[in-house]
Give the backbone structure.
Amino acid sequence: MASGRGGFRAAFISVGLLGMLFCSGGPCKADGPGDSSSSADAIVAHLQFREVDFAPLCWELKVVRTGPFAREPAFAGSQVFRGQFVLDKNTNQVMPFAWDSREGKLYLDLNHNGDLTDDTAGVLTASGRDVQLFSGIHLRFASEAGPYDVLVDAHVFGQKQTARVFLYVRSLWEGAVELNGKKWYLAVIDRPDGRIGPMAALKEIGDRMILRPWAERGEPFLWWHATLQYVHELSHVKLVDFPFRYAGNAEVFDAFNAPASLFVQGQAYRLEYQVERSGNLAVAFRAFRPPVAKLHLGGESIRRVVLDGGAAGFTVVLHSPNAEVEVPAGTYPRQIMLLQHPGSTNFAVGLGTNSLAVAQDNSATLNAGGPVENAVGVSPEPSRGTVSLNYQLTNAAGISFRLAFQDEEAPPRLEIRQGDSLVAQGRFRFG
């Protein structure tokens, strides 16, 4: 049996706070450029651009190998990889680069002229030898109002005669918006592909949005750690289980893909995103009335439920919901649940991937809440004559959860007994 409690344990990991990290020099102000304004037909949130010292979004790029550049520096090593970061294949957003792995140097052709010797800002030195992290890269993109920047760090390493690149985004837009008489903290994190808005497929991490009650803007929100140093000591793909990577919650508990249509507090909005001349971001909320239907939420300790209908559907944010709520009628292929016991400092985050259909003529049920219990999944491996045992934290509906903060030095234990005799024992590994 797996040892440990089915409830939520206290946090053992130091995390960043939105109010401390996003609002440098003091708490966020309720007025100014980060506030919202209204017009005849829309509420407009003006979000300020900020650079932060952690990564609220990580994204692995596709890398294409290319030939030599027209002009190149005198590389110190012989192990040089020349290629392109493919930021977006549909719009041909690429960044030509050369990586001198022996010397820990990354050369970016920022002006795309085939010359690696005339971009002083594009020459970066890795912070270490074991992990080549190139910090402080400003990627610039065009928009109708003018250019805007996204700050990233690039983790580059070699694998099977090619280079793999993870971009860690370290900037966002944030501010306040008042919707239906309630003030919310709003942030948009740009996936640096030259497009802002609901472009991503359902199982793809795109531009991300965080929407919280204003009073909760300072709560911890990172999945593991708030600093890049520890993240880069791990294999990123092992930070969370496989389905959670598709949910995009490797870094932020309550973030979701930026939607075209949002439903919150019983009101539906169509969203429009526009970069401003200052480099800040305006998000317009245009209210409308779609057909709604009843949804019953089963279980306890439900702090938040996000129903994700994909880019063509609604994103529904249910914060501290009642047992029965109204949501736009439609289909929601993905559901993200956040559970928290009253007074607890820990969260459990769950991902549902069974399509949820909500129809006007028939109320639907989503068993989103707790209690959650420890379990062990058994997967036979006949070719090896073994079985694989995987630790699981699930609720009564079989939805998988993961504790936000876990004591890495005390992972769940496993004991196998035959009668009263202990046959085997061990510990599960996190990730």
